[in-house]
Design a protein that fits this description.
It holds the Pfam family Chorismate_bind. By secondary structure, the protein is α+β, with helices and mostly antiparallel strands. Helices cover 30% and strands 29% of the residues. The protein has ten helices and 22 strands. Strands 1, 2, 6, 7, 8, 9, 10, 18, 21 and 22 form a ten-stranded antiparallel sheet that branches. The protein has a nine-stranded antiparallel sheet with strand order 3-5-4-19-20-11-12-17-14, with helices on one face. A three-stranded antiparallel sheet has the order 13-16-15. A hairpin with a 3-residue loop joins strand 21 and strand 22. It is globular and about 55 Å long.
């Protein structure tokens, strides 16, 4: 049996360099870096259709089994899909290495040189996406929903194998301060071999923390309302100021904040929700941001339980949630998979970090399927929402060695 190891002194950049696609999990945040290998046990599927039901309790059961087998402070790692009827990918690894946050030099390339050449298939085509946004606006006008998040996908295929390790390193280098992740989905792929599915890896760099827990302290950082960055400093500042003053975007942001606060409130004895949003930026986007902090009523409430209570937020689904989910299934011509789900970790003490699975792709040997979405509210312009998704694709495209869609 492989010993379960947590090596706190491992350099974070070493963990990134040692990542390979057959590793079960890689995760870096402003707080820590985690590399996990192998699978000791997996969280079981729920008996009913809703795979989110009793998810935290099923995870606790697996962690207790791991502790009884002699593993010290085992952790759950992995991802949860957007569709609550689809199986989760959560496992207890055989080996875990931990380190502090990644500190990469921006001008030092870990994998220099050009990447592969790709063929591109938009799903749906841009014109069809615009028509989908128009359908979403019609639902809003009819009063069925007040917000709906509609996404599209780009499938990139290459004649040669894609170096996932290289893409992950590039994501980490270009998204300092965010959350870079890679999750091996091969257990699900193995279950789908009859359908011709190959090994898959969920990979990305999310700017959005769904929730974290450290002891009794809870932290969430919802994002909603976006603008693409500009290479021109003056124009970039103008876009940031316009976003911060936009009544449409501030309303969209407020809807998300209200939902996250309502989701956390039953678990917290105190909850601090700022009255005004602030701005944060990534290499490609400006976002409206609110930092929510709370103190739990009970130490038995795990980070996974908190995350499951929040997923999905209106930032990635819409509101009301059930109506928005139903409309998304009707309008979007593809399965989101793990896009707009959540990815992260939870240890046996309940501490952990869970991020919203955005700015991501599902990778196979010679293909990467990218995802990006935009929040649609009354007053949204379909052409603007298409442009927003194009800007959001750039996080993955830059990591792939591409700068344009």
């Amino acid at each position: 049996m492989i010993d379960h190891r947590i090596v706190q002194e491992s350099p974070a950049d070493q963990l990134l360099r040692e990542y390979r696609p057959d590793a079960s999990f890689f995760f870096s945040s402003p707080e820590r870096t985690i590399l996990a290998k192998g699978v000791f046990a997996a969280v079981s599927e729920a008996e009913g259709c809703n795979q989110m039901e009793n998810l935290a309790q099923r995870a606790v059961s697996v962690l207790k089994d791991a502790e009884q087998s002699g593993r010290q402070n085992p952790i759950i790692v992995g991802a949860v899909p957007f569709d609550e009827t689809k199986p989760v990918q959560l496992t207890v690894p055989n080996e875990v290495w931990c380190a502090g946050p990644l500190m990469l030099e921006q001008d030092v390339q870990i994998h220099p040189g050009p990447g592969p050449v790709y063929d591109i298939e938009p799903i749906p085509q841009p014109g069809e996406y615009i028509r989908g946004v128009e359908k979403g606006l019609a639902r809003i006008a009819a009063g069925d929903v007040s917000k709906i998040v509609l996404s599209r996908s780009l499938r990139y295929t290459s004649p040669v194998s894609i170096d996932i390790s290289r893409v992950l390193c590039n994501l980490a280098q270009h998204n300092a301060g965010g959350y870079t992740f890679a999750v091996d989905l091969s257990r699900q792929a193995a279950a789908s071999e009859s359908a011709g599915r190959k090994r898959r890896t969920l990979i990305g760099a999310s700017p959005e923390l769904l929730v974290s827990r450290n002891g009794l302290h809870v932290y969430a950082n919802p994002l909603a309302g976006s603008r693409p960055r500009s290479d021109d400093p003056a124009e970039d500042r103008r876009r940031a100021a316009e976003l911060l003053s936009s009544s449409k975007d501030r309303h969209e942001h407020a809807v998300v904040i209200e939902a996250v606060a309502a989701g956390l409130k039953p678990f917290c004895k105190t909850l601090d929700v700022p009255r005004e949003p602030s701005l944060i930026s990534t290499e490609t986007m400006w976002h409206l941001s609110t930092e929510i902090k709370g103190v739990l009523t009970d130490a038995s409430i795990s980070s996974l339980e908190l995350a499951a209570a929040l997923q999905p937020t209106p930032a990635v689904c819409g509101t009301p949630t059930d109506a928005a989910r139903a409309a998304i299934k009707e309008i979007e011509p593809f399965d989101r998979g793990f896009f707009t789900g959540m990815v992260g970790w939870c240890d046996s003490a309940g501490d952990g970090e869970w991020v919203v699975t955005i700015r991501c792709a599902e990778a196979e040997e010679r293909a990467l399927q990218l995802f990006a979405g935009a929040g649609i509210v009354a007053g949204s312009r379909p052409e603007d929402e298409l442009a927003e998704t194009s800007a959001k694709f750039r996080t993955m495209l830059i990591a792939m060695g591409l700068n344009n869609e």
